[in-house]
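Worked example 3 (structure in, sequence out).
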């Protein structure tokens, strides 16, 4: 269970960072974290917009549409649920880099659908899976990552 006061305090600590991104690990739903956070179902919203884009243009348009979704938020804090669509290889985006690029103007709180070990790194899927992603500790050392199960910060 996410303690909303804890999360809000952590998000406030990001205010002076260049990229204001917080990844939540081992949580399936982002809710009840405060009225200042607008939550988005990325999978639903992005797929609804991409369905109108010809398939051969989706890799070019995906990052632009995602960025517009973030910019259109009326709040300083944006919560992102169901980000699995960002790992789709056909979209040709690096999910973590896309989140970081959009976490400069808005503070982003994203549910990461993978695993985190501070000694090993951040992953999504298994190495044999086509959407597998791995970020080594040096790639993520400046990120705020909260693992709900192990209480690792």
């Amino acid at each position: 269970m996410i303690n909303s006061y804890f999360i809000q305090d952590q998000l406030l600590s990001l205010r002076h960072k260049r990229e204001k991104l917080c990844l939540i690990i081992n949580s399936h739903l982002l809710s009840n974290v405060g009225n200042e956070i607008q939550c988005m179902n990325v999978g639903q919203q992005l797929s609804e917009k991409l369905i109108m884009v010809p398939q051969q243009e989706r890799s070019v348009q995906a990052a632009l549409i995602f960025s517009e979704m973030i910019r259109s938020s009326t709040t300083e804090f944006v919560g992102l649920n169901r980000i699995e669509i960002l790992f789709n290889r056909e979209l040709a985006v690096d999910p973590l880099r896309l989140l970081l690029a959009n976490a400069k103007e808005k503070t982003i709180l994203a549910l990461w659908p993978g695993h985190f070990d501070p000694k090993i790194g951040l992953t999504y899927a298994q190495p044999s899976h086509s959407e597998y992603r791995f970020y080594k500790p040096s790639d993520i050392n400046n990120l705020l990552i909260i693992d709900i199960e192990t209480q690792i910060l």
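Notes: The radius of gyration is 15 Å. The CA atoms of residues 127 and 133 lie 8 Å apart.
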